[in-house]
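Pilot study result, target chain (128 residues):
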Amino acid sequence: MKEVEMMADTNSDWKKALKSKVTFHDFIINYFKEHQELTGSYDIPSYYEHYVVKLDKHEQLIITLTTGMNQSGDNVSIPLPMKEKEKMSIEDFRTLILNKKFADQNMSLADVFQTVAGVQSTNDDNSK
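Predicted structure:
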């Protein structure tokens, strides 16, 4: 129960922190001190996308996205997974969130990182 309460607090805290450059910076620094990394994925039988977000020693967010095809048969040749890495300052990330108006939606910090990484949402598939 405490974990659920903490997650709910984190979801509202990051949105409140967006209002100030300094507060958001402190929030992200503290978040990654506690969590080390944030991960997520989108996986269907034929395709997958996985992302990892970390904070480096220069206080830059490092978003690593790995995409690939899942094997569907015994002798199928599959291309190697593709890995992309993007660096972003905490303030650039805050500006991106504000410009895209993620804060107005009912999204968690993980949802926002997923969108920034370019990972499809499972909700998008369910709405088709």
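One observation from the pilot: The two ends are 34 Å apart (CA to CA). A full batch analysis is planned for the follow-on phase.
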